[in-house]
Structures are given as structure tokens and as C-alpha cells.
Design goal:
Strand content: 5-15%
Order of helices and strands: EHHEHEHEHHEHHH
Bound molecules: zinc ion
Number of domains: 1
Strand order of the largest sheet: 2-1-4-3-5
Radius of gyration: 18 Å
Length: about 240
């Protein structure tokens, strides 16, 4: 059993913490994490994003309807809460509503840190999240993930840390974050993580060990099957 870093949950010898740059933000960021993913995320980027953003926190749960910490934040009048989630009436960083709200409130960005299917489930269960205003990326953005390991069923899937990076940059371009703040360290740590994984993959190959990538591929295929089945079931109602 290897010794883990209690901050980034990586084995101590490959801890990412030394690569993390702390970034101050005008908004506060909340990561909602499924308990299953919270403690065993080998490739989880939400935790790295949380370590990088000074005013951010992780709240663990599935149905957040009665989550005390989240509800305390939602009822705190200093915040204007928004959920980063697709919706036909979603705001964007350019929305006048957001600009006006940010004049006397702090934007509270809520990010569901999960695969799309789990995120959908968490949203469906959490009545308090459903009631909130959603925010999406600018429609012209068309961001592509640089994450080549964790294949996702949706092609335009972004890892949590990439989502934060793009959203915060859109905020910055629209004066919702300070023009002097650089969000590049988010991408830097993400790149480090990708490089590190490529390197350990090569190392496994050199030692003639079975490819973890193949294992992941097999797992993804299995998950896709299950997800298709679950999605089909959901569409029945
Ligand atoms: Zn660490």
C-alpha cells in the first residue's frame, strides 16, 4: 500500500502539489463531487482545480437538496449563485444579468464534477440546483478537451479543470475577473498531469506490463454500454 498525499490524493512520490500555483479569484467556486469519485480519482481534475483556486471548495454528495453547506451558501445574500450546466436559458459571461449581479454580489460558480451521466443524475435529484440559474460557455467557443486518456461519450466533454479555465477566462474577458489574473496555472497543472500519465504508461510498456490504457478503454466500453442502457431506461419515462 503506497503512502498518499492527503491534499491531491496522489501517491506521495508523484504528488502534484509542488506544481500547484494558487490563484485568487473574484468569484467563489464550488465543486460538487459524487462520493464514489471523491476519494479515488486517479485522473480527477476537480481536486487539482480546487487546490489551485484559493476561494473554492469541494462538497461531496449525490442529492444536494438538503445539503447544509450548499444551502447555507445559496441563502447567503453576498452571493449570486449559478450552475455551470447546459440549459436553453443559460446565461453566458456576456449576459447583462451577470454583469449587473456582479456589481454588488460575488458570483458563486457551482461546478458538478462528474461524468455527464452522473452529473445529470445529480442535477435530477437536487431540487435546489434545478431552481438555480445556469451558465454555459459562449456559444462560439467550441472548446476541445486536451485530455486524451479519459474518453467520454460526448465529444465536446471537457475535464473539470479545463471547464474552470475556460469559464474564468471568459469572465476575465468580460470584466467579471481582474484583468491581471492569469488562469494559465490551471492548464499548466493539467498538462503536467497528462504528461505524467503518458510517462507512467510508457514505463509500464517498457516493463512489459499490461497497458493501463487498454484497461481504461475496456472499462470505458463497459461503461458506455451501461450508460446507453441507463439512458434508454431514463428515456422511457
Ligand atoms: Zn499532493
Amino acid at each position: 500500500m503506497c503512502v498518499k498525499c492527503y491534499k491531491c490524493f496522489r501517491p506521495k512520490k508523484s504528488c502534484y502539489c509542488k506544481y500547484i500555483t494558487e490563484i485568487p479569484t473574484k468569484c467563489k467556486v464550488i465543486f460538487l463531487m459524487h462520493p464514489k469519485e471523491a476519494y479515488k480519482q486517479k485522473t480527477g481534475t476537480g481536486r487539482l482545480a480546487c487546490l489551485s483556486l484559493v476561494d473554492s471548495e469541494i462538497i461531496i454528495g449525490i442529492d444536494f437538496t438538503h445539503n447544509k453547506r450548499l444551502n447555507d451558501l445559496l441563502s447567503d445574500s453576498q452571493y449570486f449563485p449559478i450552475v455551470l450546466y447546459p440549459d436553453e436559458n443559460a446565461l453566458t459571461a456576456k449576459s447583462e444579468t451577470l454583469k449587473v449581479a456582479s456589481e454588488n454580489k460575488r458570483i458563486l460558480v457551482i461546478v458538478v464534477d462528474a461524468t455527464w451521466l452522473i452529473a445529470k443524475k445529480m442535477m435530477k435529484l437536487s431540487k435546489n440546483l434545478q431552481a438555480l440559474q445556469k451558465i454555459s460557455f459562449l456559444p462560439s467557443a467550441g472548446y476541445q478537451s486536451k485530455f486524451t486518456f479519459k474518453r467520454q461519450p460526448a465529444r465536446d466533454y471537457l475535464s473539470t479543470i479545463e471547464s474552470c479555465y475556460y469559464l474564468l477566462n471568459e469572465f476575465k474577458q468580460n470584466s467579471l475577473e481582474d484583468s491581471g489574473t492569469s488562469f494559465e496555472p490551471l492548464m499548466d497543472i493539467f498538462q503536467k498531469m497528462v504528461e505524467f500519465q503518458l510517462e507512467s504508461q510508457k514505463e509500464r510498456e517498457r516493463q512489459g506490463q499490461p497497458s493501463r490504457y487498454q484497461n481504461i478503454e475496456a472499462q470505458v466500453k463497459k461503461n458506455e454500454k451501461q450508460q446507453n442502457f441507463q439512458a434508454a431506461l431514463e428515456n422511457l419515462d
